[in-house]
Design the sequence.
């Protein structure tokens, strides 16, 4: 049977696939806004220049811009007032080219045009790749003019000359709850690159643990993943516990499966620069919705240490109070020290008999005695009202002044990092970490609930052997198979 789809359904479908495309606005106003204008007609969505599906392009006289998203920012601490911030990459360091923002408001036949306020570099030159021709991450600011303050632009285009017909047009996102009530904690996960590694069972354990700790939602970005990981993500998406955004690399960087993985594993500085796009997109899409945003990898967990701290909320109520005593204000971020829980060969360690063997974190309770140094390899709870740009480990720029980060005591919490080895930059001290280990069963305070939740999910997904479906929750369920 042939199924027909009308234009309205098509618009909704395209908008869900490419959130940055203002197709609904264009569809509604195309007859009015595309008539001849004195300056800068509204660009047809068919005349925009797309790059690798999710990016839109501006080719200037001095550099190419690949634009990913645009966001409405009216946070109180912003010194420039209401603004649209555009996230993207530019193949220039310290771009000199002058550009303009064409701001399109609903019901206006022509845009209001303002000069770009700033290009905010989301990187430090000492980290490498500081040369022309390599795509660099930037946050571009466009101030909202006074007559339009209080109105949210429908879309924005970046152009070199004021009256150019733009080759890009980004929907301005403003995800603010109607009742202005924030939830507690969001977690952002950079582009998943697990084409060959089936980490689906470990991912289930991790998602369930974060749910117990109080993560309201986890926002994943997906490059290339194993089919079983896709199965896990779709399951949690249906429950509205996670959101998955497909992602590509911009410009001439590879997006072919396999080749992309090779590129990211060999070109680590390029990889780290690219990661800043999903992290900051996640911040700006969710800055009005959550009290705290944490950037985590799927092999690490912020673990409250005290028995009375069952959740992140319990932990942060005490931590924020400690910070207030120091400077009578909230901090842009609160950082947690990193400690390694080494994987080792699976059979070198003793199995904990009352824990299923597939529960990776619950089984690995030996850790390095020493933490990595303060402010190194930390992860943070970020206050989205205060941070401007984020890096994997800490904020790079903050609103209203310097980025002071409050160090959470290791008596209160630790970043449990489950790895086979240290990161490359810690190679010299890694042997010392491995030789001096202690038993740490802090995670076991969640053991019963975590085992039950994980088993239930794996059973629903059909990851157990068929024979184990008989006999309730018995030990036969330790036997996994995956289609």
Sequence:
């Amino acid at each position: 049977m042939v199924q027909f789809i009308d234009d309205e359904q098509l618009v909704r479908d395209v908008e869900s696939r490419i959130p940055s495309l203002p197709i609904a606005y264009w569809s509604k106003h195309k007859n009015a806004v595309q008539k001849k204008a004195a300056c800068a007609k509204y660009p047809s969505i068919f005349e925009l220049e797309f790059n690798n599906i999710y990016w839109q392009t501006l080719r200037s006289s001095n550099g190419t811009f690949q634009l990913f998203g645009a966001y409405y920012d009216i946070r109180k601490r912003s010194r420039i007032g209401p603004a649209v911030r555009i996230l993207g990459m530019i193949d220039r360091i310290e771009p000199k080219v002058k550009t303009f923002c064409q701001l399109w408001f609903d019901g206006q036949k022509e845009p209001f045009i303002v000069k770009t306020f700033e290009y905010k570099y989301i990187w430090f030159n000492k980290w490498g790749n500081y040369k022309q021709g390599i795509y660099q991450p930037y946050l571009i600011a466009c101030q909202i003019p006074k007559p339009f303050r209080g109105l949210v632009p429908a879309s924005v285009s970046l152009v070199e000359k004021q009256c150019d017909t733009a080759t890009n047009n980004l929907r301005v996102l403003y995800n603010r709850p109607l009742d202005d009530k924030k939830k507690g904690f969001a977690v952002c996960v950079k582009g998943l690159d697990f084409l060959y590694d089936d980490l689906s069972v470990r991912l289930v354990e991790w998602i369930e643990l974060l749910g117990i700790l109080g993560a309201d939602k986890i926002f994943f970005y997906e490059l290339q993943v194993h089919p079983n990981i896709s199965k896990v993500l779709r399951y949690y998406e249906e429950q509205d516990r996670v959101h998955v955004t497909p992602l590509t690399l911009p410009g001439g960087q590879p997006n072919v499966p396999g080749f992309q993985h090779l590129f990211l594993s060999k070109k680590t500085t390029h990889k780290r620069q690219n990661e800043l796009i999903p992290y900051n997109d996640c911040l700006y899409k969710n800055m009005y919705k959550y009290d705290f945003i944490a950037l985590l990898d799927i092999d690490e967990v912020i673990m409250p240490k005290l028995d009375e701290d069952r959740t992140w909320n319990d932990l942060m109520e005490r931590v924020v109070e400690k910070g207030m005593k120091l400077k009578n204000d909230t901090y842009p971020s609160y950082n947690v020290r990193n400690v390694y829980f080494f994987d080792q060969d699976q059979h070198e360690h003793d199995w904990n008999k009352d824990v299923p063997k597939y529960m990776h974190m619950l089984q690995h309770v030996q850790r390095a005695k020493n933490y990595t140094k303060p402010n190194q390899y930390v992860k943070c709870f970020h206050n989205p009202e205060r941070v401007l740009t984020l890096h994997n480990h800490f904020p790079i720029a903050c609103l209203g002044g310097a980025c002071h980060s409050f160090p959470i005591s290791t008596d209160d919490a630790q970043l449990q990092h489950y790895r086979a080895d240290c990161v490359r930059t810690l190679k010299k001290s890694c042997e010392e970490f491995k030789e001096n280990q202690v038993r740490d069963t802090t995670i076991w305070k969640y053991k019963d609930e975590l085992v039950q939740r994980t088993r239930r999910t794996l059973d629903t997904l059909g990851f157990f052997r068929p024979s184990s479906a008989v006999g309730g929750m018995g030990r036969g369920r330790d036997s996994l198979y995956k289609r």
User: Anything to note?
Assistant: The chain has ten helices and 24 strands. Residues 468-476 have pLDDT under 50 and may be disordered. The first strand starts at residue 50 and ends at 51. The first helix runs from residue 7 to 17.
